[in-house]
Specification:
Structural class of chain B: alpha/beta
Number of helices of chain B: 40
Strand order of the largest sheet of chain A: 3-4-5-6-7-8-11-12
Oligomer: heterodimer
Number of helices of chain A: 12
Strand order of the largest sheet of chain B: 1-8-17-18-16-19-20-21-22
Structural class of chain A: alpha/beta
Shape of chain A: globular
Helix content of chain B: 25-40%
Number of strands of chain A: 12
Number of strands of chain B: 37
Radius of gyration of chain A: 22 Å
Largest interface: A-B, 35 and 61 residues
Order of helices and strands of chain A: EEEHEHHEHEHEHEEEHEHEHHHH
Chain lengths: 335, 1185
């Protein structure tokens, strides 16, 4: 069975990529992912804002209350050397590069123009095979119009592209007025891949204490519908690669994404739940399905159910939606 | 050979001494004590960084449980052949004395580095004098004294070189704070020079003398009358040889470094007639003054003593000018009842013996007087030196004098002219008045570094701190100049004064220090055009009269605009360089930026950029003020305390509060260290700009905010509606909730002037506005607009009757909020995690409470002058408090119990004896009275009052005795309180003994898991994986389970509590512990500034500590066992979150993930295992019957 695929020009042994998650915080786990069969690993996201905040917080709390009282002029040992900023992140990339053979993709979430390019450059220097820009941006400013938001995405991408020589992927949310147009804009601006889609932080309410909760829930298989639809639609219309992410729990989702047209399929939730070795299971089950359906290679499969390949292309459009509604039968509706 | 390349560094005395100790030892046994802690901290830090000694190996640095333990370890390491050192001061040095006799008696080469400090007598003092080292002069240790930072560096090496040759061990000492903490530019001794000074053959010889099973010997025998005496005399030749060895080593040192010292150095006129003999930092001031006077033609000189023990009479006499006619010996110590202080007596002996032997090369026996100066870092100025020289002119100079104070009791003090100033024009003198929190001190340390490194100037920085831990002020004294600086005293005449806090202008008379034409920089929100009208009259007058150049900057605005928050350090530093003229402006700015890069570079680019931005923004906001010709202000400096304050507070306490304590005469102070309680209420410190504001309509009157307020600034009362008739307009009141209280009103009153703005009250408040859930029943708001209203409200509230204790529900937080706290407005840190427990104890048992307080944070915020928080109720009853030492607190409190038990027993015996005279019924009732709750206690107090009335009329010695003991017939409560450093480490032996005794004392351990008061050193309570000083690489071992150790006795009540997690359980534990007729122990989780947390989240951290199982709550009650039940009750649930979720909110854990992620991970895993296993053990214990 030929599982090989190409992602942003990189030849991968199979289409399964471990996406950004705490699993890549340790080189040891990255190695385990490789051993289990992952074709590439996207590092956990480097959040510029978080780094800045952490550095400042550390500075603040280490100096808080110092030089105030004669007996306790400080509270911590004067540590000469400690990791700040992206030091630790880059160290992991560096060590991982030495210890594994699969590509390591740096994941970056910046906030400042300088942050985007500088960290991307640093990642490249540390050995990242590619960079994924995780543009995680909530436009809460009511004066900011959609066109301006889109422009910002393009600007960031262009800036990073001009700063690094490795391929650059962009991970976006589905919240654009025109996803298809946005995809083309990014593609035109040089995105080597689009990663569809990231999940925004959506707070919950704690009803007991009347507080806003910021806990994160892992994705479920039902969440693949949205990316599945857009990947199927975009397949064959972009110069760059397409990565599917969100909702992969079993080989079923992997297969669906590839059929829709994804070059690679990324997973986090399943690995967080089942452990890094689960990637082997996904791979095995995908192969089993392919064998059962007599597919010979991933490339044969890719896009087989994309919009342009299915018998009824309108299935991806509005008519499909109407049909669903018509077919919907609720226990609370009269038969 | 003098090395041509000189390395110049900026450091303080502790670092300078520790640098040499680390280079020349193999083993350091350490223990924290102010002001020497930093020496051990440096050694530990360097070892953890892998720095090596001159032999290329990393010294082992080990923290012990006490100085007694450290000295034992030093002794052991020395006996087995290691080059060993330790660092200590004060009480710590006293604890080493037994081993010092041994080390010296066995002729062991060793150096103890001491930052000399006062001893606890009528009061404790952390400041510098020679009382501690003088208490060791009989141990057989040689004593070599350094007078400056450079000398602390140099003498450390000379001591080490000499001890190896002489075999006599050395105390190398320098003045605590004045030298240990003075930042100075010094020449670093090269490794080559150190190697040249330390003779390897002598090191090997030291090793060869060691105990070894390969060549067995025994040492440390018991000796009998036949030989002990002779054996004691065997060492004499070694002592006789020591001075010559030290001088030879000093000469060798001079060859290597160019700095020549003598055992007794002489400065001044070679033909001086009046000579001062002095040792330590004061010698530099004496030298400066003598040289100043000599230039004016006075025939004076100073003998600076370096080697005090062995005292070389020959060298001393040789140092005196032949022309000497009168001598004043200045001792920085006090030996009550002696014929004179130690050095004075040595000098007399030297003179008399030399004359008797015909070897005194003077014209005649000089007149010799002795005196005391500088106790507890009391300033010692050129004016005082001059005063002593003037005294020596007299025919009958005052002997056994004091200088620097006004002694109107024994009239020992010598008068001097305070206007006598020797400050040189070649030296820039700058003073900065700031807050601890605004970073002034740090910025000034940085400035000194810049100037040291960028110019050839001599530099000196010395910093004076406040007595409070929150909102404390600092004064920085910086000198820079082309002359070498010998001024070891605070700046007396400044040519630059920086005031970093506008409100100081009304409190501190800063400009009295200004010289003519000085520059004055004020941080103010008022611009250059408005500021003049906001200055007090006195300030205006001084500016005009002294022709002061006056500048203003709104540093807080610049800080806010540039993301610096409230840290105005960089901004004020930039201003200083811009207008002081020490360096060229442009050059200075570039240097500041370079320094910022260096200092903050390790903290990340973000921090650097923020500071750069602040520098750039500063100059645009710095403005010179055009000074009018006339003072126009009507603002006068307000009185320190209100007129209604008690006399002592007005005449003594207020003077200390105003910074005029130095001017108080001896007669003003109590003879035996006894002070009135409840004085913090007179010190309205107004630390916080933001204070809580109560919303009566939302309040559910739960009392949580009252319970957690660390400074007792939130109090509540309920009262009859009629009480409101005289209330000030705007006084907040609401109907008391709950049934059965018709017509009762409730008020939650906030003492806004005492609040430190910690916001714990807001965090804990459970009542939210239904329509706007972000708004609670208590919220922070700006203080200024409500200050006057709340001041009036508090005054009225305080006058409302206290709620009747006998009717209060002691079992709920809602109930105990009405108990008056008898511990209020302490000087603890903002958001302190300890004080809520202390306050609760004072509420529950305050009117019959004895507190024995171990030295530490709690003894400082509880007992540091000028004002103290322990207070009395309206009946005049309240906690009585004392601090003995650090190590003996359990025993100290145990002594309280013995007194109470004995005196109660005796009182009952007398009552039995006198029952006929007193009346059968009253006597019987008193003797049989139950005293288990406040209702019963109140009844007993009434009976005892009746008894006392009867006894007062009886003319019978037995009745008089009973009268003096009658109060003991009311039950007392003894609480032994301290931190984990005391309970887990230094005081554990005593504490264990108390547990074993089973006597009725209650022990409260305020567990911050670190030595908080001395700045965060690890204790045995420090959890695994946390970084602390002395555990810079993360504590490798787990936390000691003190609770289970105590519980293993079976008859000790033990509770582990965390108020932030379960206040009700805390309350229950306090009440059960107190009710238990045996020994009780409460271990209370106390979040702390030394954890590196957001103190606002302290209670949340407590909760997480419990939820992750790091701090399981339990009560172990032996009474249950007696009733056939399981004494162990777990009060918290099985851990629900991993330890890391709790730990990584704290810098103490987080830092290790930055310095050594692999180690952090490993230790966190082990910490999780610790928790899992502990929980299993506890669960098992609680499950049995």
């Amino acid at each position: 069975m030929d599982l090989r695929t190409t992602y942003m020009g990189m030849e991968l042994k199979n289409p399964l990529v471990a996406s950004a998650s705490p699993l890549s915080e340790k080189v040891e786990t990255i190695k385990r992912l490789e051993d289990a069969g992952a074709a590439a690993v996207v590092m956990f996201s480097l959040f510029e804002e978080q780094l800045r905040h952490d550095d400042q917080a550390l500075d603040h709390f280490m100096s808080y209350g110092t030089d105030s009282f004669a007996e306790s002029l400080s509270f911590f040992p004067e540590v000469d050397e400690f990791a700040v900023g992206a030091d630790r992140y880059l160290d992991i990339i560096r060590t991982a590069k030495e210890q594994v053979d699969i590509p390591i993709i740096g994941s970056l979430n910046g906030i400042s123009p300088k942050g985007w390019t500088e960290y991307a450059k640093n990642m490249q220097e540390a050995g990242a095979s590619a960079i994924e820009l995780n543009i995680y941006y909530l436009p809460t400013d009511m004066d900011l119009n959609g066109a301006h938001v889109e422009e910002q995405y393009i600007d960031v991408l262009k800036a990073v592209k001009s700063a690094v020589s490795v391929p650059v992927a962009v991970k976006i949310s589905p919240f654009f007025s025109s996803i298809a147009n946005m995809a083309r804009q990014l593609d035109d601006a040089g995105a080597d891949a689009l990663v569809l889609f990231n999940r925004f932080y959506q707070p919950d309410f704690d009803l007991e204490n009347l507080e806003v909760e910021s806990s994160l829930t892992l994705s479920t298989a039902t969440e693949i519908r949205l990316p599945l639809m857009w990947i199927a639609f975009l397949y064959g219309k972009l110069k760059g690669s397409i990565a599917a992410t969100r909702g992969v729990q079993t080989a079923t989702e992997v297969v669906k994404y590839i059929l829709a047209g994804a070059d690679v399929v990324m997973t986090t939730s399943a690995l967080l739940k089942q452990g890094p070795d689960y990637i082997g299971t996904l791979l095995k089950e995908t192969t089993t399905w392919m064998e059962k359906k007599e597919y010979e290679s991933v490339s044969q499969m890719r896009g087989a159910m994309s919009q342009q390949s299915v018998a009824d292309p309108t299935a991806f459009e509005r008519a499909n939606y109407i049909r669903i509604l018509e077919n919907y039968k609720s226990a609370f509706l009269a038969p | 050979m003098i090395s041509e390349k000189k390395t110049v560094v900026t450091m303080d005395g502790n670092e300078a001494a520790s640098y040499i100790a680390f280079k020349t030892t193999e083993v350091c046994a350490i223990y924290p004590i102010t002001p020497s802690s930093a020496m051990g901290e440096f050694a530990d830090q360097w070892a953890s960084e892998g720095r090596k000694n001159i032999w290329g190996t990393i010294p082992h640095v080990v923290e012990m449980q006490s100085e007694g333990g450290a000295s034992g370890t030093v002794h052991g390491a020395l006996q087995t052949g290691s080059l060993t050192s330790t660092f200590t001061a004060s009480q710590g040095l006293l604890l080493m004395i037994p081993n010092m006799y041994k080390i010296a008696g066995e002729l062991t080469s060793a150096v103890l580095h001491v930052a000399a400090r006062a001893l606890a007598a009528q009061g404790l003092s952390i400041f510098g004098d020679h009382q501690d080292v003088m208490a060791c002069r009989q141990t057989g240790f040689a004593m070599l004294c350094a007078s400056s930072v450079q000398e602390a560096h140099d003498m450390a090496l000379i001591s080490q070189a000499s001890t190896l040759e002489a075999r006599v061990p050395f105390i190398h000492f320098f003045d605590g704070f004045r030298t240990s903490h003075e930042v100075n530019k010094i020449e670093l001794i090269s490794d080559e020079a150190i190697r040249a000074m330390i003779d390897d053959d002598l090191v090997i010889a030291h090793r060869k003398r060691a105990l070894s099973p390969d060549r067995p010997i025994i040492r440390g025998t018991a000796q009998n009358p036949d030989v002990y005496f002779q054996a004691r005399e065997t060492v004499n030749p070694f002592y006789a040889a020591t001075p010559e060895i030290v001088q030879r080593r000093m000469n060798q040192f001079a060859q290597l470094t160019g700095r020549q010292y003598k055992l007794f150095d002489y400065f001044g006129d070679p033909a001086a007639e009046r000579v001062m003999i002095i040792m330590g930092s004061g010698a530099d001031t004496a030298r400066e003054t003598a040289e100043f006077l000599c230039e004016k033609g006075e025939k004076v000189g100073v003998v600076q003593v370096h080697l005090f023990r062995p005292f070389s009479i020959k060298d001393f006499i040789g140092a005196l000018p032949k022309t000497t006619k009168a001598i004043a010996v200045l001792d920085r110590t006090k030996e009550p009842g002696s014929a004179g202080e130690p050095m004075y007596q040595d000098v007399l002996t030297a003179l008399v013996e030399s004359q008797a032997d015909g070897e005194l090369p003077l014209a005649g026996m000089p007149r010799c007087i002795g005196g005391r100066y500088g106790l507890s870092s009391k300033e010692f100025t050129p004016a005082m030196v001059n005063g002593v020289f003037e005294e020596l002119k007299k025919d009958k100079p005052k002997n056994h004098f004091t200088i620097g104070i006004k002694d109107d009791v024994s009239n020992t003090s010598i008068d001097y002219d305070p206007e006598f100033v020797t400050e040189s024009d070649n030296v820039v003198r700058a003073m900065f008045f700031g807050l601890g929190a605004d970073g002034t001190v740090g910025a000034n340390k940085n400035s000194i570094k810049i100037i040291s490194e960028e110019t050839d100037f001599s530099t000196q920085g010395y910093f004076v701190y406040d007595s409070k831990k929150s909102g404390s002020g600092t004064v920085s004294h910086l000198r820079f100049g082309s002359d070498k600086i010998y001024s070891t005293y605070l700046i007396q005449s400044a040519n630059f004064i920086g005031c970093h806090q506008f409100n100081f202008i009304e409190k501190i008379d800063m400009l009295k220090h200004a010289t003519k034409g000085a520059v004055f920089l004020l941080n103010s929100t008022y611009g250059q055009d408005q500021i003049w009208d906001h200055l007090p009259r006195r300030v205006q007058e001084q500016i005009i009269e002294k022709e002061v150049k006056f500048y203003v900057i709104d540093a807080y605005k610049v800080a806010l605009d540039t993301g610096m928050g409230t840290r105005i350090n960089t901004i004020m530093q930039t201003c200083f360089f811009a207008i002081s003229g020490v360096l060229e402006r442009e050059e200075a700015i570039a240097k500041i930026k370079a320094a910022i890069k260096k200092t903050y570079g390790k903290k990340g680019e973000e921090v650097v950029q923020k500071n750069f931005e602040a520098v750039d923004q500063t100059l645009a906001h710095l403005h010179e003020v055009k000074v009018p010709k006339k003072a126009t202000s009507k603002l006068e400096m307000p009185p320190v305390v209100p007129d209604k304050a008690p006399d002592f507070v007005k005449t003594v306490t207020a003077e200390m509060m105003a910074g005029r304590g130095d001017e108080l005469p001896v007669s003003a102070l109590p003879v035996d260290g006894t002070y009135p309680t409840g004085t913090t209420r007179w010190e309205k410190r107004n630390v916080s700009l933001y204070v809580p504001v109560w919303q009566p309509e939302l309040c559910i009157q739960c009392g949580n905010c009252v319970a957690v307020c660390p400074h007792s600034c939130i109090k509540s009362k309920h009262y009859d509606e009629s009480a409101l008739k005289d209330s000030p307009e705007g006084f907040k009141s609401v109907k008391l909730s709950g049934r059965g209280f018709p017509g009762r009103r409730y008020t939650l009153q906030i003492a806004v002037e005492d609040c430190t703005g910690c916001t714990l009250c807001v965090e804990v408040c459970p009542a939210k506005d239904k329509e706007e859930v972000g708004r609670k029943a208590i919220n922070m708001d700006v203080k200024e607009p409500i200050l006057l209203q709340e001041r009036a409200n508090l005054e009225f509230f305080d006058e409302l009757p206290e709620n009747d204790r006998s009717k209060i529900d002691f079992s709920t937080i809602r109930g105990v909020q009405y108990l008056q706290p008898l511990f209020e407005y302490s000087g603890a840190c903002s958001g302190c995690g300890e004080t809520p427990y202390v306050k609760m104890m004072s509420q529950l048992f305050g009117d019959r409470l004895y507190v024995a307080n171990a030295t530490g944070c709690s003894s400082i915020y509880g007992g540091n002058l000028p004002t103290t928080p322990w207070a009395a109720d309206k009946n005049g009853r309240g906690p009585t408090w004392s601090n003995s030492l650090f190590e003996d607190n359990a025993e100290f409190g145990f002594g309280f119990r013995l007194t109470i038990d004995k005196q109660t027993e005796f009182a009952r015996e007398l009552l039995e004896e006198l029952r006929g005279d007193i009346g059968e019924e009253l006597a019987a009732k008193i003797l049989a009275a139950p005293q288990t709750n406040d209702e019963e206690l109140t009844a007993q107090r009434e009976r005892v009052a009746a008894l006392k009335e009867k006894l007062a009329g009886m003319d019978n010695v037995r009745a008089k005795h009973l009268l003096s003991l009658a109060d003991m017939l009311v039950k007392k409560s003894v609480w032994i309180m301290g931190g984990d450093g005391w309970a887990y480490d230094i005081g554990y032996g005593g504490l264990d003994h108390i547990f074993a005794s089973g006597r009725n004392v209650n022990v409260l351990v305020l567990d911050t898991e670190v030595y908080s008061n001395t700045g965060g050193q690890a204790s045995k309570s420090t959890p695994r994986g946390a970084i602390a000083k002395f555990a810079a690489a993360g504590k490798p071992s787990g936390k000691k389970d003190l609770g289970m150790m105590a519980a293993s006795y079976g008859n000790v009540y033990v509770a582990k509590v965390a108020m932030g997690a379960n206040p009700k359980q805390t309350l229950r534990a306090f009440r059960e512990a107190e009710a238990y007729e045996g020994t009780s122990l409460i271990i209370a989780y106390s979040h702390c500034i030394a954890h590196g947390i957001n103190m606002q989240q302290g209670l949340r951290q407590q909760k997480l500590a419990v939820e992750c199982g790091h701090w399981p709550l339990f009560r172990y009650n032996p009474e249950l066992a007696a009733a056939g039940r399981n004494p162990m009750q777990l009060d918290s649930q099985k851990p629900t979150i991993p330890v890391s979720q709790y730990a990584y909110n704290e810098v103490r854990y987080k830092l290790l993930t930055r310095t050594n992620p692999a180690s952090a991970e490993k230790l966190m895993k082990l910490a999780q295992q610790d928790v899992n296993e502990q929980w299993k053990r506890y669960e098992k214990l609680a499950a049995g019957k």
